[in-house]
Every structure is written in C-alpha cells, then in structure tokens.
Amino acid sequence: xxxxxxxxxxxxxxxxxxxxxxxxxxxxxxxxxxxxxxxxxxxxxxxxxxxxxxxxxxxxxxxxxxxxxxxxxxxxxxxxxxxxxxxxxxxxxxxxxxxxxxxxxxxxxxxxxxxxxxxxxxxxxxxxxxxxxxxxxxxxxxxxxxxxxxxxxxxxxxxxxxxxxxxxxxxxxxxxxxxxxxxxxxxxxxxxxxxxxxxxxxxxxxxxxxxxxxxxxxxxxxxxxxxxxxxxxxxxxxxxxxxxxxxxxxxxxxxxxxxxxxxxxxxxxxxxxxxxxxxxxxxxxxxxxxxxxxxxxxxxxxxxxxxxxxxxxx
Length: 314
Description:
- The chain is an alpha+beta fold.
- The protein has one domain (10-284).
- 26% of the residues lie in helices and 11% in strands.
- It contains 7 helices and 10 strands.
- The chain has helices at residues 2-9, 15-65, 89-93, 182-186, 220-223, 236-241, 281-284, and strands spanning 74-76, 86-88, 141-143, 173-177, 208-210, 230-232, 243-244, 247-248, 267-271, 276-279.
- The strands form 4 sheets. Strands 3-4-9-10 form a 4-stranded antiparallel beta sheet. A two-stranded antiparallel sheet has the order 1-2. Strands 5-6 form a two-stranded antiparallel ribbon.
- Strand 7 (243-244) and strand 8 form a beta hairpin.
C-alpha cells in the first residue's frame, strides 16, 4: 500500500496537460503583448507631446520678442541661395529651450533628421565638419507653412505671420511630426551634400492645394494668389496618397512631409497658441473644422475655400 501511494503522489503531467498549459500561456501572451505594446506607445506619445509643448512655448517666447511675429520656416544665410546653409525655425527658437533633445520624438524610427546641409561650405564629408545650417542636430518635427512660411530671405521678415492675423490660434496647427519615409521628406531630390542623404529637414508642410495642384508657399508671390483658388485636402486618403513607400511624386502635395499615424493611428500637433493635441489626419483636414489655417496669412489674407470652391473652410 505504501509503495502505491508513493508512486501516485509523484506522478508528473501528462502530455495533454502540458499542451493545455502551453496553449493557455500562448493565449495570455497573445492578449497581453499588444496591451503592453500599446501602453509603451502611449508613454512615447505622452513624451512626444511634452516635447512639442516645450517647443510651442519656445515659439511663443520668440513671438513675444519679435513683435508678435512667428519665425520663418527657414531662410538662406546669405539671402541668395543655400550654399551657406539655412537659418531654420528650430535654430531661431533654440535659445528659448533648455535641451535640443526635445526636438526628437521617441517614436521616430529615424531618430530625427539631420540638417539638410550637414557640413561646412567646402562640402567636406568629414564628420568633424560643423553643419552649415543654423538648426538643431536632429529633428522630428516640421512647421506649418501657413504659420511659418519658407520665405527664403531674411528681408521677407516684415511679411512673416503676426499672431493677430490668426483668427483662432488654438485651432490652427503650427508644428506637425515629420514623415517616417525619407523619400517623402526628400521630395524629388536627395540631400544637398551626401548622395541619398537622410532628409531635407528644412521643409515645412501644409494642408492646402491650389486648385488641386501643389502649393509651394516658398515666397511672398506664392502667397498672393490673385483669385480665390486655394482649396483644402479633404480626406485622409488624398493626404496619404501624396506619399508612398516609393516616395514623393513631383507635383504632389506638401502634406506628404508630415507623418499621419506616428502614434496609435494619429499624430501629435502643436497649435499656434502653444498647446498640443493628438489627432487623426482626417480630423485636421475636416473642411468644417480645418486646422491648417483658414487664410494665406502672409500673403493677401486670401480665404481658403472648401473643395467645392464656393465657401470658406470652417
């Protein structure tokens, strides 16, 4: 009797029982891993929002010091061309911020873009060469060209955007997140100096078209369209079609420079009053609550119209 009880008490798992346990563990893992991943991305989204909040406050301090005017997305150091590099909006606002690291989103798979012109005027590729662009070392964020246009010349300063021109600073995007696809940021060209370089990080984005065609907003003249022809990009499908894995297509839309789904199906946006909020791209492009700007603020304040071209965006 004693021998039988001892044998029974030390019996191990059967193969079926072991398989059942393994199956239960696998099911629990399949349920929990996405939850853990979502929680981790939520933390990164919050960190990114904190970054953008500090950037927004830095821009607001810049605005207070410069007659209530927002910085330009960029202008040429020599006011003539890019051979001496750019003065980028991140370089203009950097003195108001405690750390350059806040310009890098923790969810950015590229770790932030380098300056467009990363080296000295001799076009040396030596890593020790200082960058030509007045810009932070790496950046994950891009400006809205309606708020910070690419005027190219510092002499265009009087035509930059005054905060008083913006009808609803809490409702107009100022800074968005850069696209994860290098080819979309590069546009139809590569980096200035290194073949296949990692991105034209001086480029601003925006959410309008000119009768459905590309709108560069590169100069004062670009902003002064003589007839009311500017319309919005109205759907996420149109926006996402602007950039594919193959990159940006010539004549495409400059909203391709922005990333639409960096955080759980949406992205963070800093608004013209400095606050930050997460949105899906279709929310920002809603013609009845259009968040990319309701006018060409640095041009003749032309009203941006809905896709029908018959009434202003809301």
